[in-house]
Write a structure and sequence with these properties.
Layout (H helix, E strand, L loop, with lengths): L2 H8 L4 H5 L3 H4 L2 H16 L15 H11 L13 H14 L6 H17 L4 H12 L20 H6 L9 H18 L4 H9 L6 H14 L2
Helix pairs in contact: 6-7, 7-8, 7-10, 8-12, 10-11, 11-12
Amino acid sequence: MGIGKIKGLLNPNNPVNIRRGGLWRSLGGRLKGRLVMTLLAMCYGLPAMAGHQLYEPLSNSVCASLSSAVSDSPVTHAALLESPDAKAWLQEMSRRLARRMPDSQQRMEFLSTVYYESVRAGLDPEMVMGLIEVESGFNKYALSTADARGYMQVMPFWVGLVGTKGQDLFHLRTNLRYGCNILRLYVDMENGNLYRALGRYNGSLGQPQYPMMVVEAWKKHWSY
């Protein structure tokens, strides 16, 4: 969708809007702004409608463990992706994701990475799919107003805290490896309470909306 088409959709004189009784005129200013930003994000990846992880001090041992987990090392144990269960999962998720990610090669690379990094971090890949849907809408170059980046909306401060200078959070494997391991850290911090861990991930701990959105997307679209 190009910017010209977006302008047409938002134009109050558009015959579609006129036939709908001035829908655009009836929208509140805040809702109009959100609609504009969502449509622009579809075109340019700017900006994502997501929260962000908040910086908090971590012990040296936790930092060292997380640093090791997110190190930009090549994928190993690729046999994980060759199991019958993994192959069946990839085929089914590819079918479900095709409308959002039409390029089959990009789609399979993305799904293989989601599966690998989720399992590596001890997370359910389908839950991670729900989180990505909510965080970025499967937009690789999503960028929030808080500067959270990529599919899993990872905040740049993590690279300075536990990563290596120059790591690109828009890179597929880097983004998913950081995102999965940060969420794993929060799950551990919350003693296995996924709802609280998701709240931490989004910077909205104690508020139910975000965890409920992730679980709804997970169960509605990706549960298999």
